[in-house]
What we know:
The complex is a heterodimer of chains A (200) and B (329).
Chain A: H1 2-8, H2 13-21, H3 23-30, H4 45-49, H5 60-68, H6 72-76, H7 80-83, H8 89-93, H9 100-114, H10 121-136, H11 141-152, H12 157-169, H13 183-198
Helix pairs in contact in A: 10-11
Chain B: E1 4-6, H1 17-30, E2 34-36, H2 53-70, E3 76-79, H3 82-97, H4 99-111, E4 122-125, H5 126-134, H6 136-142, E5 151-155, H7 177-184, E6 188-189, H8 208-224, E7 229-232, H9 235-243, H10 245-252, E8 260-262, H11 263-270, H12 288-292, H13 302-306, H14 324-328
Helix pairs in contact in B: 1-11, 2-3, 2-4, 3-4, 5-6, 8-10
Amino acid sequence: MATENASQATPELSEVSLPNLRFLEEVSTATAGISRLEMCIQCGTCGGSCPSAADMDHTPRLLFAMIRAGLRDEVLSSNTPWICVSCYHCFVRCPQDVHIPDVMYTLKSMAIRAKRYKDATAPDFSATFVDMVESYGRSFEFGLATRHYLKHFPLRLPSMAPMGLGLISRRRMEITPSRIEGINQLKVILQYAKELELVQ
Amino acid sequence: MTGYLFYPGCSMETSAKAYHESLVAINESLDLDFTEIHDWNCCGATEYLGISLIPAYALISRNLALAEKQSNGSKTVVAPCSACYLNLAKADHYMQERPELGTKVNLALQAGGLSYKPGSLEIRHLLDILINDIGLEAIKSKVVKPLVGLRVAPYLGCMVPRPDYENRWSDHEHPVELDRLLSALGAEVIDFPLKTHCCGGHMPQISPSTAFELIRRLLHGADQYHADVLVTVCPMCQMNLDAYQAETNRHFHTNYKVPILFFTQLMGLAFGKDPKNLGFGRELVSAKAALGRIGIEAPESEESKAQPKRPKKTGLPMPNMPAAEEAKR
C-alpha cells in the first residue's frame, strides 16, 4: 500500500501520491459535460436507487469516496462501472446533480486504457460492437452475437439457438451487414477523433 | 412546422422491424412529415461511450451534422429508439455545456468535411412528437376500432424519461404520457409501477444473471397486474423482454408468457389497420392469444407456420414420471 511506503521513504511521497490526489480531477475532466463529481456529499441515494447494485463490488457512493481518496487501482478494477445499466435513476435522484452514468463511462474507458478490468466480457463486448460500427457504420447484431457468444458464453449457445433461429426466421436479424455510403468519411472522422482523444 | 428529420437507428431495420412497419402504417392516417436523414450511421449505443469520449461523440455528431445540412428549415430530429434518442440528445447537450468538447468533435467532423453547431437542432423521441405535436385529440379521432377489453402495461423504460435534459416529460419516474395515449386508443391501462424500470440494457451479453433478474421483475409485475400485453417504446426493451423471456424463464423456473409489443402496433390496430401490416408475428412470445381475446385476428408467426412440430423422440424405456404439479398434490 502507498501509505506503508510513504512512512518508510518520505522523498517518494509526492511521486507516489500526487497523481492519485489528482485522480478525482482526472476522472471529472475526462467526463462529458460538467460531471459535478466533486459535489458528491456521500448521501448514498445513488446506490439505493440502483437496480443492479446487488451485483456491484462497490456502490456508486463508495466508489466516489474511493476516487476522492485516490484509490486508483481499486477503482479501475471495480466491476461497478461494468454492472451499471445506464438507467439514470441515480442521475435524476442525486441531490447534487452528479452525472453518475457519464462518470461510469469515463471509468470504463480509463479501466480499458489501464487494463485494470477483472472480467473481459464487458470490455470485449463493447470493443466488438465498436469494431462492427467502425467497419460498416451500422451495428451488425449477427456478427456481434456470434463472435461474442462463441468467446464468452459458449455454454449458453445451445439454449440460445432457438432464440437466434426465431429472430432470423422472423427477419429480425440479418446475417449480412449493411454498410453506409459514407463509410470512408466516417473512418476519417473517427481516426482523427482518436488522435484528438490523446491530446489533453 | 416544416416537418421532422427522422433518425431510424439500426434496430428499426432489423430486430425492431415491427416497430418500423407499424410506424409506416399509422403514418398513412397521421400524415407525419418525416424525412429520413440521408446515410445516417449507428449512434454507438451504450458501447462506444465506454471506450473513448471524442470518437463516441464524433460518431453521434456525424448524424447531427448530416441532419443540420439536410434540414431545410426543419429543426427537429425524431428518434424512435430510446438509446438513439438519448445519445443524440446527450451529445447535443454536453457539447453546449462543455464548449471545448464541441470544438474537438467539430475538428474531427471537419476531417470528413462536416460540421455541427451544438444547440441548433432539437432532439425528440417519437412518443413525444405523437403526444405533444400531433396531440391526443387528433389520435383519438383516427380510432375506429377501440381496444376495449385489452389490459395493457405501459412500459417506457429508462432512457426516454431520464435524464430528460430538456424537461419534456411529466415525471422522471412515473410519467403518464404513454398511459394517456393508450387510454385514447380505448385500452384498459394498468397503473404500472415498474413503467420506467430498467430492462437490463446490454446486460444479457455481459452479466446474464443481472439481466435475467431485471427482466424477471418486469415480467412478474406485468403478470401480477394481469396484463394481456406489455407495451414498449424502445427496440432494446422489446428485444430484452421478448427474446430473452424464454431464457429468463429457464433461469428462474418460471413460465411467464407476456407478449411485448410496440405502442405503434396498438395504434395501428386501433386505427383499423390490417394486423399483417403492423409487424405482428415477429414477436417471439406470440401475441395471438391476447389479441384473439378482444376479437383481433393476428397472423401466426412465420416460424411456427413453417415448422411442423417434430414428434417427441422416444428414448430408453423409462417409467412415466408425474409432472411437477401433479407430484406436489
